[in-house]
Amino acid sequence: MQRLHTRSAEAPLEKTERMIPDVVDPRVEALVHELIGRVADKWTMLILETLEEKGELRFTQLSRDIGTISQKMLTQTLRQMERDGLIKRTVHAVVPPKVEYRLTDLGKSLGAAFCGVWIWAEANLAEVHEARNAFEQAAKA
Amino acid sequence: MQRLHTRSAEAPLEKTERMIPDVVDPRVEALVHELIGRVADKWTMLILETLEEKGELRFTQLSRDIGTISQKMLTQTLRQMERDGLIKRTVHAVVPPKVEYRLTDLGKSLGAAFCGVWIWAEANLAEVHEARNAFEQAAKA
DNA sequence: ATTTATACGCACCAAAAGGAGAGTATCAGA
DNA sequence: TCTGATACTCTCCTTTTGGTGCGTATAAAT
Q1: What band does B22 get if pLDDT is binned at 50, 70 and 90?
Q2: Is A113 among the domain residues?
Q3: In this predicted model, what pLDDT tens digit does every residue of A103-131 receive, in sequence order?
């Protein structure tokens, strides 16, 4: 994986880099890990998916659509996503309050990136379950 | 996202499904969520990356390569990945013990699926940091 | 005889994640 | 006047996650 994405996402190689082995700057690596840890989170992924599917949504609509999320986690995750530039939060100064959330372009691009993982999960559900059964059987024997 | 992956990973549409809106069976959705939650985990992703890069590795080699993982988490995550069919664990009956880990085809395919996310993270590091700074500024004002 | 290396399992503890429920401001409608 | 709706925040509590240190079998090396 290292090899695959290192080249593709970086600026083109410069001459001075020629002899340097395929190792990423550890600081960059740390940042990437932090970012992935942040973003590859259950709630973030569900919100991302819901907003991608439904477009612009209000707080309680999101809550209902996701169904399994608590208010606390929803607020928390939305704030974090807003902070990271993944969603835009629009407050309408009315009463009762009205707040709408929608994906930014950055958010949409992340959704697209995760698409491969969703596809993988759907395509390999059965295989994983077979593996689990096989593992249980082997454990008994 | 729903729309994108629903069609691509499922069996071709049958006639009786024509009028059914683009909604996934909630049980399947729950399974997919569980599986993604399982697999989109920090340690799993790091082990996946390391094994993809280095091929077959022993326990302590993995531990050293990842650097920040505790023995407990390494064992735990490796077991889980083995259970899910992502890695193959080979025990050599020698003393001191020798155990080698390598990715299965399923594991490799997951690595490939995550590739998009790694690329996204690398490509958008700067943008996320700008967004964070902007958010802080806005919070102060 | 003692140390070393390997790949763990186990017990204990700290930190983080997450859920439940109550509280808040405000206005519209019954 | 009382209720309801909205989008939260705050506190308290439980669950999960993760780290640390210790123990173990065994043969080779010192």
Answers
A1: low
A2: yes
A3: 999 999 999 999 999 999 999 999 999 99
Instruction: State residue A91's pLDDT score.
Output: 96
B99-106: which pairs have CB atoms within 8 A and are 24 or more residues apart? B99/B58, B99/B59, B100/B56, B100/B57, B100/B58, B101/B51, B101/B56, B101/B57, B101/B58, B101/B59, B101/B62, B102/B51, B102/B55, B102/B56, B102/B57, B103/B48, B103/B51, B103/B52, B106/A124, B106/A127, B106/A128, B106/A131
CA distance A122 to B113: 12
How far is A110 from A51, CA to CA, in rounded Å?
Answer: 12
Q: What is the CATH number of the domain that holds B63?
A: 1.10.10.10
Domain assignment of residue B71, yes or no: yes
Global pTM reads: 0.82
Q: Which domain holds residue B50?
A: 40-107
Is B44 among the domain residues?
yes
Q: B35 vs A117: CB contact, 8 Å cut-off?
A: no
| B85 vs A contacts (CB less than 8 Å) | 127-128, 130-132, 134-135
B7 interface with A at CB cutoff 8 Å: no
Number of structural domains in chain A: 1
Residue B65 inside a domain? The answer is: yes
